[in-house]
Here is the input.
Amino acid sequence: MSDVTEARVREVLNGIIDPCSTVAGVPAGMDDMGMISEIRLGDSGPDGRRIGVGITLTDPTCMLLTTFVNETRIRLSALPGVTGVDVTLDHETEWTEDRLAPHYRQQLDAHRAEKRRRLLPLTPVNSGSDVKER
Here is the structure.
């Protein structure tokens, strides 16, 4: 029987990096982003296991849905003992930042604090109505 576990599935899926997290400056995988809403492991006879995964997108209009689904199927199908992979989009679970893994949340908060620290103070600009004519 396959030694595929939920922990191993999460590890593999965490290797799929959310591009939006990269743009934010702190790359994170699907599990650290809290995008995995469900993992089902089922026996598929003596040959191995069938894996079911539910994915919650960080934004319901995310154009990378197909990329996440395809990468999930490809990477999990490559695990020894996996006989099939079913990926579904979880429309019921709304993604919020509280779904972030605690260690990733700390990294993101530290990154944001550092960015704020390096910002130059903004100086108000006078509009034309504040200027006196000579």
Q: What stands out?
A: The two ends are 89 Å apart (CA to CA). The helical segments are 6-13, 19-23, 65-77, 102-118. The chain has a mean pLDDT of 89.
